Amino acid sequence: MYVNTLGVWGGVATYLMPIIKEQVNLGNEVYLVVGNQGELTNNVQKNIPEVKIIFLDTMQREIKPLSILKSIFKFRKLVKDLKPNIIHLNCIMAGLIGRIGSLFLKSKIVYNAHGWAFEPGTSKKYKWPAIIIEKILSYCTDAIICVSNYEKKIADKYSIFKKDNQAIVIKNASRDFGLSHNKIRPKDGSFTVTMSARFWEQKNQLLLIKGFEKFINRYREKNQFKLYLLGDGPKLNECKEYVKNHNMEKFIEFTGMVNNVDEYYFKSDVVALITNYDAIAISLIEGLSMSKPLIATNTCGVPENFYEDFSNGCCINNTVSDIDIALNYLFSNPEIRRQMGELSRKLYERDFKIEKNISLHNNLYENLLKK
Known about the structure:
Helix 1 (11-25) links the parallel strand 1 (2-4) and strand 2. With 371 residues, this protein is of the alpha/beta class. Helix content is 42%, strand content 15%. It has 13 helices and 13 strands. The strands form 2 sheets. Strands 3-2-1-4-5-6-7 form a 7-stranded parallel beta sheet, sandwiched between helices. Helix 7 (205-216) packs across helix 11 (320-332).
């Protein structure tokens, strides 16, 4: 049984799809429990129809005590009825509801926070309550997956893990988009940047827009520049308004939610991610698979998308100036850009292939069932 707070598309959904498909291919009975319908559930219904989807409509990201309490009781009844061997919880709210709701039942519990609520950049208001809750709930968790070495390190700092061999690092992965796009982009003098992420408080598309604006203002001829911003979310209109007010609509395109991220990456020279905090970014891993140099924020687990010497891109501070400098450096040095892209592909093959990720999950499940 896989549990995710929301049924929308994003990094967690990208993480879950291949794992769920693998379990179906192995002949296992698979349930997906989510708080609402969205692109995740639509994709599962369309591409993995064998999965039984259950909507727990009281489960949501917002902290509402009554809704949380109702969700716990509903989830407990669900687990008693279905008796899953393994419950794989994803994200903090699902982790809270799922672990309390499964107390003293026989299912093995796997938890993946996909970024702790006490990481730098998250709300200081909830830092210590989150630490205390995670410490307590770890006693009723059989395995805790960390999607980056950074995520495990910060959990160790606050003594989150309470059992031997409870924590396991399984880095995020992605499909190999590079295999379907092994052509060379035409050298037409254009320079295109793409960022794929939800428009919400974690990400910072607006800062990227401001850095891109400063970059293109270096040049008299601007028609060669393009920024694609993929995704939707509550911060989208704010970004659109800024672009409109600064007469940049010709250079920046908001695509909304798309199912063909690889097509945009293929026509891009750089894949970017400007974020306030992140565990390890699947959108960047997809860029690695397509031999793209990266520009990304040096925060939390994001540097693990780079070599230790950052030779496959620019890992920068969240400032307009740093974004401007990184963009101009990669635009002005096409040969360095090409070399960085080659290194990105090698890093993908070393650390982020989907087959490795799936194998590690299978091994984890098998080991838990032996206990």
